[in-house]
Each structure stands twice: as structure tokens, then as C-alpha cells.
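Journal club prep — side note

Before the paper discussion, L.F. wants everyone to see what a predicted structure for a comparable chain looks like in C-alpha cell form. Sequence:
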Amino acid sequence: MSAAKLYSEIFDEFKKAITDNERINILRKYDHARFRDFLTIAFNPMFQFDVEIPSYKPAIEPAGLNHTYLDVEVPKLYRFIIRHPKRITHLTPQRQAALLNTVLESLHKDEATLLCNLIRKNLQVDHLTAKLVLEAFPDINIKVE
């Protein structure tokens, strides 16, 4: 895991911040290429998912003791993104759902929820907006409307 914290823990810290400057500092504190990719996927409308979120059994392991982490799974999300150049063309919707189910059941329950929210393009993190992310990382590939 390259992130110092789980993404869900980063966003828990983010939610406790009172000012936008504090929130920006938290995002910058955990700046990492994969974290930026996660934020790009969340806020760039070019990234659309076409996988159905399956019914899955949330992991019971404590944070940090899971089989995988969202930080590790971000580079593999191309499997579920429409028209992604790395995407395997013969991946059936059933196989996609099975892959996603395996990932969701391997992640910490809070990270699994965060991934489901990412797929729905609604992270449900108070005060986290494209504008704020762009303020934190001016070179990130998102647009503010």
C-alpha cells in the first residue's frame, strides 16, 4: 500500500476539517499519483463506469488488515471504465460484476463503500468538490463548471 492511510481514513480526516484551507492541506498531505487518479476518476466526467454494483458481503477485518486496498485497486479500475484504452473488450458484464465483487469483498468495508460511491460518481464526502480538488492540485485533469 503506497498511501499512508486508507482513502476512507483520509476522507474521515477531511470531513473533520473546518475550513477549505484545512481541507486542501489534508488533500495535499496525502498527495500521491494513485490518490490523484482516484480524484480524477471521481470528478472528470470522461470517466464513466458500466459495471453493476453486485450484492457483496462487506469484509469484517479491521482497517489495514484487508486483502487489498483501494490504493492498490485504482490502477485496475480501467476494467470497469467505458472506452478505457486498457479495457479488455471481451469482458462480459457477468465477469465484470464477479471481478468487482471480489474486489469489494477484499477491501475494508469503508473503502468498499467509497469504491461503490466512485462508480456511482458521487463520493458522498462533505465539502469535497471538483473546485476544491482543483485548488489543491491545479494540474489535475478535471474541469470545474
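L.F.'s comment for the group: The two ends are 33 Å apart (CA to CA). Keep this in mind when we get to the figures.
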